Amino acid sequence: xxxxxxxxxKTASVRRPLAHDSAAGxxxxxxxxxxxxxxxxxxxxxxxxxxxxxxxxxxALDLAPVRAAPGVVAVLTAEDVPGENNVGPVVHDxxxxxxxxxxxAGQPLFLVVAEDRMAARMAARLAQxxxxxxxxxxxxxxxxxxxLELHPPTKMARxxxxxxxxxxxxxxxxxxRIGGQDHFYLEGQxxxxxxxxxxxxxxxxxxxxxxxxxMLVAHALDVPIVAVTVEVRRMGGGFGGKETQAxxxxxxxxxxxxxxxxxxxxxxxxxxDMIATGKRHDFLGRYSIGxxxxxxxxxxxxxxxxxCGFSHDLSRxxxxxxMAHSDNAxxxxxxxxxxxxxxxxxxxxxAFRGFGGPQGMMVIERAMDxxxxxxxxxPLTIRRRNLYGIGERNLxxxxxxxxxxxxxxxxDQLAAEANYADRRAEIVAFNRNGRLTKRGIxxxxxxxxxxxxxxFLNQAGALIHIYRDGSIHLNHGGTEMGQxxxxxxAQIVADEFGLPLDRVRITATRTDKVPNTSATAxxxxxxxxxxxxxxxxxxxxxxxxxxxxxxxxxKSNIIRFADGEITDGHLTLPFFQVxxxxxxxxxxxxxxxxxxxxxxxxxxxxxxxxxxxxxxYGASVSEVEIDTLxxxxxxxxxxxxxxxxxxxxxAVDLGQIEGGFIQGMGWLTCEELVFDDRGNLKTxxxxxxxxxxxxxRPERFSIRLxxxxxxxxxxxxxxxxxxPPLMLAISVHSALCHAISGAGPxxxxxxxxAPATPERVxxxxxxxxxx
Amino acid sequence: MTRSAIRFVHxxxxxxxxxFAPTRTVLEYLREDLHLTGTKEGCAEGDCGACxxxxxxxxxxxxxxxxxxxxxxxxxxxLDGAWLITVEDLAGPDxxxxxxxxxxxxxxxxxxxxxxxxxxxxxxxxxxAGAEAEIGTINSWLAGNLCRCTGYGPIQQAAxxxxxxxxxxxxAQQIDRALPLLQGLVRDTVDVAGANxxxxxxxxxxxxxDHLEGYPDATLVAGATDVGLWATKQLRDLPHLVNVKSxxxxxxxxVTDAMIEIxxxxxxxxxxxxxxxxxPEAETMFDRLGGVQVRNAGTIGGNIANGSPIGDSPPFLIAxxxxxxxxxxxxxxxxxxxxxxxxxxxxxxxxxxxVEAVLLPRRNPDTLFGVYKISKRRDQDISxxxxxxxxxxxxxxxxxxxxxxxxxxxxGTPALxxxxxxxxxxxPWTLASIRQAKSALAEDFAPLTDHRAAAWYRLEVAGNVLxxxxxxxxxxxxxxxAHA
Lengths: 771, 484
Fold this sequence. Notes:
The complex is a heterodimer. Chain A is of the alpha+beta class. Chain A is built from 20 helices and 29 strands. Among the domains of chain A are: 3-31 and 459-596, 2-Layer Sandwich (Aldehyde Oxidoreductase, domain 4), CATH 3.30.365.10; 387-453 and 610-770, Aldehyde Oxidoreductase, domain 4, CATH 3.30.365. Chain A has an 8-stranded mixed beta sheet, sandwiched between helices. Mean pLDDT of chain B is 96; it is low at 479-484.
């Protein structure tokens, strides 16, 4: 690609650390979110009524007191769904409103529509609901016991695992429990549905997947998809939590708007949002690893079991990805990975940054630490020894060859730059001095596959208009949730046209501009939409180049767009002038672009194929100190080296790395989802569910970009960055284990589960002392 | 004189407002009535800071005192006499960003942008306060604002950049304009009656006492860090709210030779400096209690009066031997603070009575003091256990002559550990004695297991922090920098 030739231009914006396109709007409060859109006249407000218990049959649902409450205009139930009563995105197993029985405590039962939001919320609590509560299955353990799974266990295997395990020099076995995570996007779920002419409906929605919202609304209303338009300007955070979870509430708002012929807004209260929407799957991981006397893995038998909740949602691909990341960056010569997708009577768990990958990695990283402890080695030695090779030892458990492996070089560079060996020696000495604090350090790598595992999702479209003054309207199927997608795509398009960035107007994602889009997910937003937009721009550039040649008589094959001008090297015209010439010459100044990821294929039944175009790599060193009296701890220092290929926008990429790390650290440390023994979520607000705050950021925190380029012909040799950094935080958990091990005997390693709350750390310390 | 409307300064003019529902929040007022949507709702319970606004009030020295507040649980009635500043008010007339806003842009402090207005307002309050650029100070200021995208580093950088800088000319002019407007707002008793109830804000403690005698069923509200949630989360009908913070003389903090008298409506921000002068060991606890917005709004009296078993200040005050002065009409009575808490949800508070003052004895210099807050997250988290330990050791004999071991999170009320105390008094100040006291704690408390912590953990750490106090006394720095 001739990309880097344009970068020399004065107007070039690719590779510059540009601020988020909405930064000025964010800081001044002028960036508009769905709830900030001026309400159309006669807007009503909706609130779902949640089931007080579950699972169980609905014995009585008396909504008369709700209807009689002040301000109430209507109450909707399953009977008010003219089309399909379903919001299940893949398998149709999730009702908008349940008809005869509820599946979990907190499931929406009905919808109140009132003149104002408070009236709707108050009325929703007046329903007389009687659930004939049955004994539910709420945990992975109980589901495994009962054999309650969404579908039979899935396997991914290679080689004769049993016999290699039986003959290996040493065998290391263990298990780890990994908690879930609430997305805690700062902007909760919100939709505003506005009826138009006939059966047309426009929905302003905070969603990562406008096309799916559009489709599910159309099906529920029994109208063609074309009748529904969904617009997303921006989300106040998504993290996977608005991939499928926006749809139920958008559908509810649409049902009400359609029935009442008035605009209806549904903005969930934070507690309702946390109770009624899915989260990251919690996992149980078991491993049995055979190693030689140097700790080199000969065979690995890994079992994963996850809590999927009451319906499928995206659990199948999420657990597929967990399996496909059970190797992380390590070569497993003989391997068997078994995955149980447990069905439970809890909210249906869903996409969350990493999409199962983080949980898969946690299991193998625990195994690495356990191997090292058993052999009395530095865990880094074991990790380093087992990394995928270059040109050999490079076949994944799903038979994809790792062709772009930079993990050994990256890990070595980080270990040297972070002074890992000396710091570890100091820590080991520190832990021998009998003080009441213990320290720990760990270096863990990340290798994360980029592309949707569902191959068909790897497509994207874009739409570009050039107006007569040369200003550019840019639209594509990706959505902006803070990750910097819009600025990156705008940078690419601006550079294609050789224009300053401010000539490219970023516009809201709309289903009537680019149809049939995939969710903005899988870290692939820029890879897909950036390429589609580039294609659209190149189509327009070809037309403008022809126009230039026709007008100037140039015979050149090489027409350059740079610095606001179009030139063949001899003759030069301003961009806007060529645009104007094209208009009068009746040349179309609007074009679509389309992109599909090459090379990939995936057979989920066989667990084989090339699900990913390439891998993103990274590694981190974390150092912690724990208080052995209370289990409280501090993350003292973090060093990160991360591979984003050649960065399109280093400011955006560094922001994703730091934010992803802290979010991952929250998942593994202070964020604890607690359900009671009736399946009720007890931590459903920031008062009880604690995401990291400013003081949790390590004071010494170094983030550097690894010098690399994406060899798969990706945009400007860049790599995706959204999800991989989250998993860098695994080093925090591993370092906590190291610190705890400092209170126990040699060659002992704690069974510390996640999240590593002070309570879990203290329990592990108690076990350390009991050894 | 009594007014039937509140008056406050907003956008350069005095706003007069009446007829509002007593539980109408400032956030609802801004977003729904004024269509000023820059201020966001993230949680509606004062925990995420997305709704942060600044209130400016005239200080005694003729300047303005600026305080960051959570608009989501701030009742509109409490705006009386204040200047309400929102994110829309910071930029210059030509749209030039305020330096705080520009620093957030320059350091990439926003990603999704939804928490950003709240951070901008907290940072503006930080800058207005002239706070220092030290990381601990910055984190203390930022603890009441949650960001899910950035990892906070860029926001900390923005804080460093604006620390100690001056206001831009346009904002300095706004301050100059607001001050005389505010000084012109005479403080009167406010009595607003609306369709949905009554908001009464007495100008003095005497006025409060009179009113409560007549309306003993009225709901008292101070910082609304708890009552606010009754409205926004429990959707309770609170038809008659009485704002104790409007009573000017109820916010006073007076230090005498014998006593620190913290009157009932003094906020943490008002009272903590005087407390820490005598009890520096409580600094970390108060710094970790809520965020700056909560410490600006919340009162120590309210932390006691609401009777929560997990409030952080009561165990500290009990350990320090504080007494409570309650008032009904002109009648006053005093009791030891521990006796105020009778059982879970039950306090020794009679109809029409209110907390007039907390009487904290001056520090006995011979007493060892330790205040330990144990929580899942270091900052702005409700404690699993709050331990406040006051132990007096006789210098010559080495024996413990007195001990007050107070705990929160261990029972239905904040409480003294009487068995552990008995085990310790008269014994030498040694690890062996402490371990005796630790095992006696099991006779004092049978804590709950809940979503914050398990019973075993609460009991274990409650004992272990006794040991921590011992080691700290030995001069060993045992606690981690993160939590101690």
